[in-house]
């Protein structure tokens, strides 16, 4: 259930990011609310699994949000605040290891795509690209390859 939910939310984030270059706060809040409902259900079924998931999810949230907030400030807001909140919320679903892998794959794919587009003069170094579509691919690859 967690994997399906994060893929659906990541797809919505990608669509919003492509169309408006923003990821709405309401989407991130819905992601967090859905995660709370899922983890609450798991708590009633298997307390040990729920505790493990809570800890792993907490680390995913902190690491994903932490990495992106750092990049947000270091890049002088070259990365959007919606991306920061989205990756933190996705970290709840993915847990520590999958959050790291998803960020790595998504940003690597974005960097390669950006370099190719720059080489073919479709964009300049100053142009911005939506990141959520690449994060979606990173999330999907991580889920299906692990």
Features:
single chain, 146 residues, mainly alpha, 5 helices, 0% strand, elongated
Shape: elongated
Name the helicity range.
over 70%
Oligomer: single chain
- Tell me, rounded to a whole number, the average pLDDT: 95
| Poorly predicted runs | none
Number of domains: 1
Figure out the total of helices.
5
Radius of gyration: 16 Å
Structural class: mainly alpha
Largest β sheet strand count, sense and barrel closure: none
- Tell me the β content: under 5%
Ends distance: 16 Å
Number of strands: 0
**Secondary-structure element order, N to C:** HHHHH
Descriptive overview:
The protein is an all-alpha fold. The chain has one domain. Helix content is 83%, strand content 0%. It has five helices and no strands. The model has no long low-confidence stretch (mean pLDDT 95).
What topology does this entry show?
Layout: H1 2-20, H2 25-45, H3 47-74, H4 81-119, H5 132-145
Compact description:
The protein has 146 residues and is an all-alpha fold.
């Amino acid at each position: 259930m967690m994997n399906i939910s994060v893929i659906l939310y990541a797809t919505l984030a990608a669509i919003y990011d492509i169309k408006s270059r923003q990821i709405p706060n309401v989407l991130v809040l819905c992601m967090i609310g859905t995660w709370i409902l899922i983890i609450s259900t798991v708590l009633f079924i298997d307390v040990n699994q729920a505790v493990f998931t809570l800890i792993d999810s907490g680390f995913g949230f902190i690491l994903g949000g932490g990495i992106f907030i750092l990049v947000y400030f270091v890049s002088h807001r070259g990365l959007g605040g919606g991306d920061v909140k989205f990756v933190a919320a996705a970290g709840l679903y993915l847990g520590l290891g999958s959050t790291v892998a998803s960020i790595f794959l998504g940003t690597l794919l974005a960097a390669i795509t950006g370099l190719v587009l720059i080489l073919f003069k479709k964009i300049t170094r100053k142009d911005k690209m939506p990141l959520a579509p690449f994060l979606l691919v990173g999330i999907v690859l991580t889920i299906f390859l692990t």
